[in-house]
Design brief:
Layout lengths: L3 H5 L2 H5 L1 H11 L4 H5 L5 E4 L14 E16 L9 E9 L4 E7 L4 H6 L5 E11 L2 E5 L2 E4 L8 H4 L3 E4 L8 H11 L12 H6 L5 H9 L4 H30 L14 H8 L6 H14 L6 E6 L5 H14 L3 E5 L3 H15 L16 E5 L5 H13 L2 E6 L13 E7 L6 H8 L7 E6 L5 H7 L4 E5 L9 E7 L4 H16 L3 E5 L10 H4 L15 H10 L7 E4 L5 H12 L5 E4 L12 E6 L7 H8 L9 E7 L6 H11 L3 H11 L2 H5 L4 H4 L11 H17 L7 H10 L2 H9 L1
Parallel strand pairs: 4-6, 9-14, 9-15, 10-12, 10-13, 11-12, 13-14, 16-21, 17-19, 17-20, 18-19, 20-21
Antiparallel strand pairs: 1-8, 2-3, 2-5, 3-4, 5-6, 5-7
Helix pairs in contact: 9-10, 10-27, 10-28, 11-13, 12-13, 17-27
């Protein structure tokens, strides 16, 4: 017996159905192995107390403290009208602060007997406020004192694991369940190859599991965590390395541009020279396109670094080589914008098949869901015959009716907005797998790129083209200093008077989207008293108030596509002074004459999103201005976030700040599927070195043994990480 079944044993057989049900529903734990990998969040030392002084509101906490005082009160209530109601108030202390516990009704009897002054115990419950004091109502507790069976010495100095818990299952109950299954840890199969483990001085897996759940010293915890981090990093990198290995064995048609074809003609008509960064990234892409295996490349570039130009040159190279290229954009506004900018950049080179077309010209077609039937039929025909070398569209490109003559390259803009299935469906439209270029303007720290996009080779454009102007950013504290907001609108007027244009961005549209059920709901304690500002309201107020006399228009996602396009055209042509919009303008919208942006309720947006939005101004020769309006108080985390955005234009620096402020799971995100957010001890930002080393080791292991035949433990760990759904996710990429 190889011991695997012990860890695959269902928890209901070992712990009983009631506990197992709570573990499955609330913690996602189903087997003995799952529970062994549910690691403690932190450890308490008996004798060293947690700080009651900094308890978080509304969170489930576990504290170790001593009873200072306990009083039983009687009171009258609807249920006990004759003053027979009972309330037990217990004050506990840990030296740093005091906390009140309250028990009511029949629940007072047991704690009244047990929680005597001087008693030490573990307490768990949800922190709330009553009469302006922190309290735990009806907390669960576990006494910390030796009784007949358990000598006091065994408690002294021991490290108590505190587990991620839920209201239904306290930390120590999870701890007891772990103790029940801990003997099975001896049978855990080790995923790390012996030479790797020994070479890095890492503990064997059974020993690491024992030490993380039952440490005797802090060194035990550190050794166990170091080992378990390696497991997570290495198994995930092996999954990605196997996928890269498989991709390099798929066939693809090499696409090499001719010396004097469409690409050369396009380069000749460019009114500027490419930056060194654009040339370098283009070379990497052209080298990939020339191989007989599909390119899989992530192109990340700062807002305005010229990613679209680099992608267009790649598309032209493929058209030169007899293939077709498709660009997939997340919204209709963006697809239309890309189509406009590509046809403008190409000029007569985009007029293939027409009288005005140049010698090497091709056709560039747009395909979106809202096109009229006749235009759509024409576009589909151009794709099927190969007349159109380049197509730009939304997910309408993925529909069954769409047929390509010879799809050679797929460019995906803003990858995080597309489901894996959508990308996969588009890739399936080639006779052989097409080359894939994924673009994002969200700067991704190197570690996240290695973890989330670890199956893609990465190119980075970090140089801004000459002629891009600096953007000044300022926080406008509207509640503390209302005159700052008045000055912001004056600045917008000044920009318009000098012939420029401005954006005003709001978090909400403000029409029927508001849920009527929520409308009557009173905000809970600590919640916002007003809903986020809305485009339709703000546009009206500005037109009647501080921006009266200026041409103000609105743009949002629920407008008819033709109306959206008309608004964008008027704004691009300079006919509109101020565009009040939602985040539909976040990506790809390019109006060089727009120099100012005011972001209302800026605290409602993430750091990366604010950086994206800000990138819409300062795209011409005049300097840009971005004003971040907020009502949040100065000391709040939201204000600190906005101050960070105002302080730097470096997207990579901001993405690090963003990551540090968010939880790991958010970073790896739902869009990245389960395999990505299965990290328990690995911290993407802090453990950069481990991830980089694990990636190199994984590549070597997979190159030597792609099927992992000599590493059954690694194969088992991989199967656990990649259950069927995740396996498909990685397959599709």
């Amino acid at each position: 017996m190889d011991g695997v079944p012990a860890l695959q044993e269902p928890l209901k057989k070992v712990l009983g159905p009631a506990t197992a049900k709570v573990m499955a529903e609330h913690l996602g734990l189903h087997t003995v192995g799952d529970l062994l990998h549910h690691y403690p969040r932190r450890y308490e030392e008996r004798g060293q107390l947690t700080h009651l002084a900094d308890l978080p509101m509304d969170e489930h906490v576990t504290v170790v403290a001593q009873v200072a005082d306990a009083r039983l009160h009687s009171f009258a209530s609807a249920k006990a009208p004759r003053g027979k109601g009972q309330r037990l108030e217990v004050t506990i202390t840990d030296g740093s602060g005091r906390l009140q516990l309250v028990f009511f009704g029949n629940g007072v009897h047991k704690p009244h007997k047990e929680l005597l002054p001087g008693t030490r115990a573990l307490f768990a419950g949800k922190v709330s406020v009553f009469n302006r004091r922190l309290q735990l109502a009806h907390p669960a507790y576990e006494l910390l004192r030796g009784d007949g069976d358990e000598a006091v010495e065994s408690w002294a100095g021991a490290l108590i694991p505190i587990y991620p818990a839920t209201a239904k299952l306290e930390s120590w109950k999870i701890g007891k369940a772990v103790q029940t299954v801990l003997p099975s840890a001896q049978e855990a199969l080790d995923p790390l190859p012996d030479p790797l483990r020994a070479g890095r001085g890492l503990l064997p897996l059974p020993e690491a599991l024992l030490k993380i759940h039952q440490p005797h010293t802090k060194a035990d915890i550190a050794d166990a965590r170091a080992r378990l981090k390696w497991d997570e990093a290495f198994v995930l990198q092996v999954a990605l390395a196997r996928r890269r290995h498989a991709e390099t064995h798929l066939p693809a048609v090499p696409r090499v541009a001719g010396p004097d074809g469409l690409l050369a003609a396009f380069d000749d008509r460019l009114p500027f020279t490419l930056t060194e960064g654009q040339r370098k990234v283009s070379r990497e892409i052209f080298d990939d396109l020339a191989t007989p295996h599909p390119m899989h490349r992530l192109l990340q570039g700062e807002v305005g670094s010229g990613k679209t130009l680099v992608a267009l040159r790649a598309m032209l190279a493929v058209v030169d080589a007899g293939g077709q290229a498709a660009m997939l954009a997340p919204t209709e506004v963006l697809a239309q914008q890309h189509h406009r900018s590509v046809t403008e950049m190409m000029g007569e080179l985009a007029e293939g098949g027409t009288l005005g077309g140049a010698e090497h010209a091709t056709k560039v077609v747009l395909l979106t869901g809202s096109m009229g039937a006749a235009a759509r039929r024409r576009a589909l025909l151009d794709l099927a015959t190969g007349e159109a070398g380049i197509v730009i569209g939304t997910h309408a490109l993925i529909e069954d009716k769409v047929r390509f003559h010879d799809l050679g390259l797929v460019v995906v803009d803003e990858q995080h907005r597309f489901g894996v299935e959508q990308r996969d469906a588009l890739r399936g439209k080639g006779k052989q797998p097409p080359h894939l270029l994924v673009m994002t303007a969200t700067p991704i720290p190197r570690t996240v790129a290695m973890t989330v996009f670890g199956d893609l080779e990465t190119s980075v454009l970090d140089q801004l083209p000459a002629g891009r102007s600096p953007i000044a950013s300022h926080v406008v504290p509207a509640a503390d200093k209302p005159h700052f907001l008045a000055r912001a609108w004056e600045r917008v007027r000044e920009e318009v008077e000098t012939g420029h244009q401005a954006y005003v961005v709001c978090p909400r549209i403000g029409d029927e989207e508001d849920d009527p059920k929520k409308a009557g709901k009173k905000p809970a304690e600590g919640e916002e008293k007003r809903p986020p500002l809305a485009v339709l309201d703000v546009a009206g107020e500005l037109g009647r108030g501080p921006l009266e006399g200026l041409k103000v228009e609105v743009l949002h996602g629920r407008m008819h596509p033709d109306d959206k396009d008309a608004v964008m055209r008027r704004f691009a042509a300079g006919e509109t002074d101020v565009l009040v919009a939602t985040t539909v303008i976040e990506v790809g919208v390019n109006v060089p004459n727009a120099t100012a942006m005011v972001i209302m309720d800026a605290d409602r947006f993430g750091v990366s999103q604010l950086h994206q939005l800000r990138g819409r101004v300062g795209r011409g020769s005049a300097p840009g201005l971005c004003l971040l309006v907020t009502e949040m108080p100065e000391a709040s985390p939201a204000r600190q976030r906005l101050n960070a955005v105002a302080a730097t234009l470096d997207g990579f620096e901001l993405s690090r700040i963003d990551l540090e402020q968010r939880r790991e799971g958010d970073v790896l995100g739902q869009a990245q599927s389960g395999a990505r957010s299965s990290l328990r001890v690995l911290a993407v930002i802090e453990d950069e070195e481990v991830i980089a080393e694990a990636r190199a080791e994984a590549a070597a292991v997979v190159a030597a043994d792609p099927e992992l035949e000599r590493l059954p433990g690694l194969r088992t760990a991989l199967d656990a990480l990649l259950d069927e759904e995740r396996e498909q996710y990685l397959e599709k990429g």
